Amino acid sequence: MIGQASSATLGDSAQSLVRRYAYGGILLFALLVLWWGVEGPYPLEYVSNGLYVVMLALIIGLEIWIPYTPSWGDIRKASRADVTYFLLAAPLDALQMFLLVGLVAGTAQYHHYIQVFDIWPSGAPVLLQLLLVTLIVDVAKYWYHRWTHEVPLLWRYHSIHHSLDRLEMLRASYFYPIDIFLTVGIGTLAMIAFGVGHEIIIFHNVYAGITGLLNHSNADLRCGFFDHFLNSIGHHRAHHSVGLPGSQSNYGSFFNLADRMFGTRYLPEDQSSFEPLGLDETYDMPDTVLKQLAVPFRWQRIHRAP
Ligand SMILES: [Zn+2]
Ligand SMILES: [Zn+2]
Known about the structure:
By secondary structure, the protein is mainly α. It has helices at residues 2-39, 44-65, 80-105, 108-111, 126-150, 152-158, 177-193, 198-216, 233-240, 257-261, 289-293, 299-302.
């Protein structure tokens, strides 16, 4: 009995340690691996793909071991739509890289107008370049995301991401295809406009993808002091809530600086629950991918004015 009790306490304290430090630990680990990917001997694409697989396995494990809201579930509760959107994300990302980096930036010597500024410090330390790039991309993505909420025509497709009534890692890519293409693509375009190198673009996009997985995960990770400057998990859960003012806030991507600058940062003191999530009762959103693809074109049947 005593042995059982002490192993239970050991398990509890291991869980509370992980709750407290895993968020920062994962961000730091991913940063170091990608940095090594840029500086090290192996192609960055291999390193980033390997890291991505490790991250998926790690976050799934955390969702099962320390769920934030047990009723949201984890990968075992995945619907066909969850899996379809998840599988679509990688080819859509490859497509935006091919079109923007491969075709548009790769042929820049013929048209010259993609790189708007010729000031990028390509010789600066990699982490400094990553920081600069993230600050720039954050502003571009902030406005794109905010417009998808405020411009009715764009909300017609972004609303599909907000139809999620529970969050788990696999749902990080639950977006209308053009929405996820533009979210990543606008960041890539901003980097190309500043003349950022190919490897820094990959570094930024993969790192942003990992923070996206964390922000949608159902793992109970406390962000602590990261809440002050990152658009951390609580910020994004608030963004998905129906009742809290957070649904009109937290449009930023990595840092919460853009939300602070434009007055839309919101994080409640009590982060124990953000429910209910999703859309209010004026929406009648279908739950299959094929029907969701048609949503922007039959909006009158999806949303009735309150
Ligand atoms: Zn949104
Ligand atoms: Zn989201």
